[in-house]
Specification:
444 residues, alpha/beta, Rossmann fold, 2 domains, five-stranded mixed β-sheet, 12 strands, globular, binds NADPH dihydro-nicotinamide-adenine-dinucleotide phosphate, binds (2Z)-2-iminopentanedioic acid
Length: 444
């Protein structure tokens, strides 16, 4: 396998899909050497079979707004690979959603899910519908319309969706309700459900908490204490909120949050009380992060990201490609010692190169944010056995999984000088497991 050749082919067959090409390139570069030690992989054309999704469903979603106007959006589900378990991955509602973005996310999900130790394949879905500014009733009607198409492609042992950007507990509830009605069954076909209908404790917290657990593992390798460390967090949604919550609990000091309009910088630190305000602002009133600055009298910078501020640790938790090469240089120049990704692919290839060059801790999303889908996997287990576990039980398992992923990254990513390349480690560990499973199951 020659990375350049494979990429050239994929770009020719699937043009205008830059995010998909970017995600594939990163994985192929990491695994090239190991892959080429297996001539049987090449003979079975494993690369194309693992880069191209099993199938993609795309459909029109028609819904009616509160004024009686009819709208259409596009809906998709990308089922990437189910070699090690049922397809599993979130649903994203955001105006930017495209086949390229969902293909990159489904591809990443496959190797992330492989790292979790749980039996889950990879998928992603979503719509270019934007929940921003929509009423509760409009969001409900949209979710119902989306599921009237999606439901025939999913099921507890087939494909299990969950949340992602623009899809939280409210949307999962509406989608699950419609699914249950259409399929005439009560099973764990969605995760991230409400606690009264099969949801798991700690699922809302899992991605943010898991990212901090992974960060702790990295810091432990150099006996660095997280206490007192200033943290730059981006985003202010599910992942950012619970990242802050765990940081605060451990005595670290989150100083930034952002949304698509700008970022706030609170040099005093975001406290538990201020975080409670953010949760209410975002989950209940669906307001803007600028309101935090008005309420607490701190700095707000419109149309910008927080990477120019001074901090010890960065936790990008908003969206893809939100940290570019210039941002990475600023972070390194300001003395950042670790970057741990809550979002999927938030750093561009140029930014990753800067982090590696500076030899700081850098954890890619597919390792660091795997806690969310891991607890989704635990929700599936609880649904199958028709039992619910305590917070402590779930949290313990989450910690164990994040430690296990860290160990695997160290095992496969340690370089000659002792620096751990977590990108390489995560990609090799995640890829090899799926590759072996596909090989063992024949040419299909
Ligand atoms: P939410 O919808 O809860 O929050 C997303 C946050 O990111 C919001 O603050 C949003 O601002 C901001 N944001 C979204 N798109 C953009 C953009 N294009 N530019 C700038 N800011 C943007 O989503 P999550 O917190 O669930 O997801 C955040 C990231 O974490 C995503 O990359 C997701 O794929 C990843 N992730 C999520 C998991 C989960 O369990 N939820 C699991 C693993 C990864 P605004 O409100 O203005 O749109
Ligand atoms: O990117 C992700 O891992 C998620 N959005 C969570 C997926 C899931 O199935 O819980």
């Amino acid at each position: 396998m020659k990375v350049e050749q494979v990429l050239e082919d994929l770009k020719r067959r699937f043009p205008n899909e830059p995010e998909y090409h970017q995600a594939v390139e990163e994985v192929l570069e990491s695994i090239e050497e190991v892959y080429n030690e297996h001539p049987e992989f090449e003979k079975a054309n494993l690369i194309e079979r693992l880069c191209i999704p099993d199938r993609i469903f795309s459909f029109r979603v028609t819904w009616v707004d509160d004024k009686g106007n009819t709208h259409t959006n596009m809906g998709y589900r990308v089922q990437h690979c189910n070699a090690i378990g049922p397809y599993k991955g979130g649903i994203r509602f955001h105006a930017s959603v495209s086949p390229s973005i969902l293909k990159f996310l489904a591809f990443e999900q496959t190797f992330k899910n492989s790292l979790t130790t749980l039996p889950m394949g990879g998928a992603k879905g979503g719509s270019d519908f934007s929940p921003k500014g929509k009423s509760n009733a409009e969001v409900m009607r949209f979710c119902q319309a989306f599921v009237t198409e999606l439901w025939r492609h999913i099921g507890p042992d087939t494909d299990v969706p969950a949340g992602d950007i623009g899809v939280g507990g409210r949307e999962v509830g509406y989608m699950f309700g419609m699914y249950r009605k259409l399929a005439h069954e009560f099973t764990g076909t969605f995760t991230g459900k409400g606690l009264t209908f099969g949801g798991s404790l700690i699922r809302p917290e899992a991605t943010g908490y898991g990212n901090v657990y992974f960060l702790l593992e990295m810091l432990k390798t150099k006996n660095i204490d997280i206490k007192g460390k200033k943290c730059l967090v981006s985003g202010s949604g599910n992942v950012a909120q619970y990242t802050c919550e765990k940081l605060i609990e451990l005595g670290a000091i989150p100083v930034t949050l952002s949304d698509s309009n700008g970022y706030i910088y609170d040099p005093e630190g975001i406290t538990a009380e201020k975080l409670a305000y953010v949760k209410e602002l975002k989950e209940l009133y669906r307001g803007r992060i600028s309101e935090y600055a008005e309420t607490y009298g701190c700095k707000y910078v419109p149309n910008a990201r927080p990477w120019g501020e001074k901090g010890d640790i960065a936790l990008p938790s908003a969206t893809q490609n939100e940290v570019n090469g210039e941002d990475a240089k600023k972070l390194v120049a300001n003395g950042v010692i670790a970057v741990s990704e809550g979002a999927n692919m938030p750093s561009t290839p140029e930014a990753i190169a800067v982090f590696h060059e500076a030899k700081i801790f850098y954890a890619p999303g597919k390792a660091a944010n795997a806690g969310g889908v891991s607890v989704s996997g635990l929700e599936m287990t609880q649904n199958s056995e028709r039992l619910s576990w305590s917070s402590e039980q779930v949290d313990e398992k989450l910690k164990w999984i994040m430690q296990n992923i860290h160990e695997n990254c160290v095992k496969y990513g340690t370089e000659a000088d002792g620096y751990v390349n977590y990108v390489k480690g995560a990609n090799i560990a995640g890829f090899m497991k799926v590759a072996k499973a596909v090989m063992a199951q024949g040419i299909i």
